Structures are given as structure tokens and as C-alpha cells.
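B., you asked whether I could sanity-check this one before it goes into the benchmark set. Here's the sequence:
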Amino acid sequence: MRRLDGIVKPFILPGVFFQLIAFSPSLNSLLFSGVAGLATLLGGFLVTAAGSRYRGSVKYFMAVGAGFLLSLVFLEVVPETLSAVGKSFALWFLGGYLVIHLVEHSWAGHFHFGEEVHGEEVSRTSQAASLGLLVHSFLDGVSISAAYHFSSVVGVLMFVAIGLHKLPEGFTVASLNLAAGRSEKTALRWAGFLGLATLAGGGVSSFVYAYSPQLLSFSGGVALYVAASDLVPEVNRERGAKVPILVFAGVLLFYLTERLLHYLLEG
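And here's what the prediction gave me:
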């Protein structure tokens, strides 16, 4: 036990931080949703202001995020919410999956996570795709808040999982607008809109969760779609084994983070 404390001791400060900010689940949900929104803005910045220096790193975030998000859904969200809400879990989970599927295929149209360069084709659909990503970002905020209201451990895990794909999301919306011929200022503004949508989703979810605790089941369906239908296909587009292996790194990161959070926040 003394040896374990020696290993974990360097990580105690983050644990204390999480406890110090625990004024209420609602305030913490807004905080984490806001930070995730800033990650979206950073993704837009990488496209518009930072040139191409960091663009190649986006695929690594997608790969790690895919592994982390899949692990979160199957190892934490599904078993926890299934025991908490019972038979209604499946209906809410399926509903979340289908809603984000509808949003991406009716509004978002032609887009994929990552850099978009097909200007002529994208110019006709970029506005609808940007609006679809706006709804997508709102649901990200809903997921963070619903998870944090369920438990602090699940909430922090959801925040990390969503944060990992928020940077590619900002990268995507900014490159969409640039490919459509819009200015860098407009492209960055859209990344900011997505960040604000995430914050708004966190606020709405904090209010709704008291009346519908099944919201985390819904968020689990959304998270599964994002991981399996958005992130994994982008990983599969990459040649070689380096990026796909990072999916397994995401799984390992989830396990280590989950163990550490249980130790720090639950004793």
C-alpha cells in the first residue's frame, strides 16, 4: 500500500483540484463543457492561424479519442446506466445513436473529420455541414453534463473522451469553411460557435438531467456513434499501422485514467 501511494503521489494534485472545484455538478459540468469548447477553438486555430505545422497531429487525437470513447461506452456508460435505469436503457441508448446519425446525414451531408480540401464540392454543403456540427457539439456538452451528474468519475472520463475529439472537430469545421472560399476569420468564428454550442449543451443538460436521469443512456448512444462512425473510419483511412495502434493506446489511456480517478475521487 505504501508503494502504491508512492506511485500515485505525483497525481494527487489533480485529484485535489477536482475535489476543490466540486461546488456542484452543474457548475463543474459547465466548467468541463467550456474547456472542451476551447479545444474546438484550438482546432480551428490550427487550421487558420498556425498554418500546416500541426495539422498532421489531428489524426493522432482521432485515433486515441476513438479508443478512449469506445472503452468509455462499453466499460463504464453501458454497465452503469443499465443498472441505474433498467429496461429503458436500451431505448434511450438507441435513441441517442439514431439522433446523431440523423443530424450528420441530413444536415452535415458531405464532411469527414480532418482537413477538407475539395473546395467546389464543399462550397455547396459547408453551411449545412457546419450547422450539423453545431448540433453535434451541443450534444457533446449534453454528454459531459449528463455524465458528471451521474458521477464525478464518469463525468471526468466523458470530458477527457470528448475533449480528445473536440480538436479534430474544430479542425474540421474551419477547414470546411476555408475550402468553401470563406475567410480565415469566418472559419475561426465557426470553431468558436461550436465551442459555445458545447457550453450551451452542458447548461441545458444540467437542467434537464434532474427530470430525466436516462439522459446518460442517450449520451452513450451519441458517444458510440461518434467513436464508431466518425472517428474509427478516419483512422481506417490512414495507411500503415502507426495510427490504428493509437486506438489501442486510447484504450490503455482509458483504463489508467479510470483506475486513477476511482482512486483519487472515491478513495
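One thing to flag: Residues 1-13 have pLDDT under 50 and may be disordered. Otherwise nothing jumped out at me.
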